[in-house]
Design brief:
Number of strands: 11
Strand order of the largest sheet: 1-2-3-10-5-8
Shape: globular
Largest sheet: 6 strands, antiparallel
Distance between the termini: 34 Å
Order of helices and strands: EEEEEEEEEEE
Strand content: 35-45%
Structural class: mainly beta
Number of domains: 1
Helix content: under 10%
Oligomer: single chain
CATH topology: Jelly Rolls
């Protein structure tokens, strides 16, 4: 399924069921790569990636950073919580409980973590510019 084929999130909240989710190193957290734009100049690091993330109830992505500060343009990740939910976003020195749809951007070496506090899966998109490579770029704090 391409990004252009994604349904309007307010109309069909379970549109993601049946997609090919892959397990991550975090218990109850899975991802599905929706799009990867290769960089012809550097095949090891895509220009950008769009991932669909799914956190089971009570699942946590621990506080972590992406070690990508040497890239130009600078690495960033936009998290779009397209259906809202009941979850907590952790920053290095604070946290925020969220009960609605939000979009937030994470910069290189900025710490972030996410906890699903709902009784149903939390589904959101992660768009990375320069794209996600693998878990070796992540450092858990």
């Amino acid at each position: 399924m391409s990004a252009e084929q994604l349904p309007v999130p307010h109309i069909e909240k379970l549109w993601w069921k049946g997609l090919d989710f892959q397990k991550t190193p975090y218990k109850g957290v899975e991802l599905c790569e929706l799009h990867r734009e290769p960089d012809p100049k550097n095949p090891d690091i895509p220009l950008h990636t769009i991932m669909l993330m799914k956190l089971d109830p009570e699942a946590i992505i621990p506080l972590h950073i992406h070690k990508r500060d040497d890239e130009i343009p600078a690495w960033s990740e936009t998290l779009d919580f397209i259906h809202g939910g009941k979850f907590k976003i952790y920053w290095k020195n604070s946290s925020q409980e969220v009960f609605e749809e939000i979009v937030t951007t994470v910069k290189s070496r900025q710490a972030v973590g996410i906890e699903n506090m709902d009784d149903k899966p939390l589904v959101f998109t992660s768009t990375m510019i320069k794209g996600f490579t693998d878990y070796r770029e992540i450092e858990t704090l």
